[in-house]
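Section 5.1 Outputs to date
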Amino acid sequence: MPGTTAPVRLIASDVDGTLLTPDHRISPEVKAAVAEATSAGVSVVLASARGPLAMRHLVEELGLLDVPGAPLAGCVVAFQGALVGQFHADGTFTELHSTRLDHEVARTIVEQVVAAEHVANWYDGAGWFPSRWDGYGEWEQKATGQAPAGLLGAAQLAPGSPGPHKLMVPPAKGLPDLVPGLAAALPEGCDAFLSGEHYLEVVAPGVDKSTGIDQLAADLGIARDEMAAVGDGPNDLGMFAHVGTSVAMANASAAVQAKATWVTSSNVEDGLAAAIRRMLAG
């Protein structure tokens, strides 16, 4: 894909596999590169299938909450683009754009997952509601720093209740065909994709990270060729097709790398830092 000659004004970064090392850390080099970008007037926005609360500590650690003169400071694209919002230095979070999954569609999917004796995760704004608590939930809480708001139940599933921003079904240990089978049997009225190691993410039709960053860019009048995206997964390809410069991590699959403008080093080799510095250098 051809690169752009326009100066980059917005860099959207995926989180897991891109910003973070495999043990869920932000390296010192990546922190430094993000600081260099913001000092140069370039907005750095995290775009992830994660919810906002699972990104707040990352936004804080990167020093993005209160950047003088940066209108996108603290902004995140969450739930694959279903929720776009902004964290503020006083600890509050403002929803800027929101797209929910149809409630009846969501309830049907939950019933399918539970009938398969697996776990469904319902994400509503800042709340995370698993259908049961198990080893996956414990791992997710440790990895994201977010505790569940309760178990998925009548409060979420009752007819007339609002639909979630996202449903997520984790890999089934020992049953590798279960999640792909569920993905193939989803009802109409949703979009689904696999992130990470066969995590099934389900959102409203048309929702994608690209729509989230486009909403932010439209708020500020940033053109597509002034945006860049860095990622490692198939769920980043929408961003890649939407921006002027797309960068794949070396730890991405060959299929993802083939869709990028160029490829940086891996997430254990400070690949995001290298990508940011290359873009700042023009």
